[in-house]
Amino acid sequence: MTAPCLPARTEHQPLSFVPPPGSCDSHAHVFGPYDRFPLAEDRSYTPQPYPAAAFIEHLDTLGMDRGVLVTGSASGSANEIILDALQQYPDRLRGVIVPSADMTDRDLDRYTEAGVRGVRANLYRLEGRAVYRNGVGLEVLQALAPRLAERGWHAQIWIHAPDLPAMMPALSALKLPLVVDHMGRMNTSRGVTDPGFQFLCSQLAEGRLWTKISGADRNTTEGPPYADVDPFAHAILQANDEQVVWGTDWPHINYYDEDRMPDDGELCNLLNRWLSAEQRQRILVDNPARLYGFGA
C-alpha cells in the first residue's frame, strides 16, 4: 500500500486575466468514489478521491468551460471512471484513456460516442527505469492504431524528451496524431539546448506532433514562480503555437509536502506571463477544440 497523496489546495491565487469563453484545462484526472471505481492494487501512489463533480468545481473556480480527463496510472486500465464523468458532463468534458490490446470495436465505439478522443501510453523512463507502475507501452498502441485512426483518436505519449528521438520512428509509424505530455517531462536543469528537447521543438515546428505546456511544477528545479520553466515554454511556443494545449494536471497527485503542492491559480497565471491574448485564445480555446472535438 502506498502512502496517501496530499489533497489539492482549496484556495489559490486569483487569476491575473479572464480566460476566454470556451477555455479548456486539457490535462486532469479524476478518482473515486472508490466503492464504485477502485484503484489498481499495484500502483505507485494513492490519490484522494476526486470525482467528476470536484473537477467541474475546479473548472468553475478557474473560470474555464471545458476539461480533458486522462486516466491516471493509479487506476490501471480501468476507464469506467472517465466514461462516467463524460456521460455526466457531455458538453464540457472529453477523455483520454489507457487502452487494452483486446478492446473490441464495440468498446471503442462506446468510448468515442461518450467523448473519448485519445489513448495514453506510458513510455516515461529515467535512466532506463520506469518511474510509475501501470500504463501501456508501444505494443498496445501498435495493435490498436488502425482502429484508433478510423475513429479520429490520437496517441498521448508520456515520455522523457531525451528519449523522444530514438522513439520517434516507431511513434510516427502509428500514423496517429501524437501529443507529448508536459513539454517532454524533462527537468529544467538539462537546459533548453538538450538534444531531446530541441528535437521535440523541431518536430513541433514541422507539425509532426503536439505538446502540452503543462507540468511546470514537475519540471522545475527552482519551484514557484517557475521562472526556470519560462525558456522551455517560450521555445515551444516559438516553434509552433498552433499545436500546443495547456492543463493544470489537477488534482496534483504524488505530492506529500504541503509546501510543494502547486497552486492552480499560480499555474494558470503562467499563461499571462507566457502568452499574448491572441495566443491564450488559441491555446485555451481553438487548439483544444480542434484536438478534442469540442463542439463536434
Structural topology:
Layout: E1 24-28, H1 52-62, E2 66-70, H2 80-88, E3 93-97, H3 105-114, E4 116-122, E5 125-126, E6 129-130, H4 138-150, E7 154-158, H5 164-172, E8 178-180, H6 195-205, E9 210-212, H7 216-219, H8 230-240, E10 244-245, H9 264-274, H10 277-292
Parallel strand pairs: 1-2, 2-3, 3-4, 4-7, 7-8, 8-9, 9-10
Antiparallel strand pairs: 5-6
Describe this structure in words.
The chain is an alpha/beta fold. It has a single domain, classed as Alpha-Beta Barrel (TIM Barrel). The protein is built from 10 helices and 10 strands. The chain has an 8-stranded parallel beta sheet with strand order 1-2-3-4-7-8-9-10. Strand 5 (125-126) and strand 6 form a beta hairpin. Helix 6 (195-205) runs parallel beside helix 8. The radius of gyration is 18 Å and the shape is globular.
Summarize the structure.
The protein is α/β, with parallel strands linked by helices.
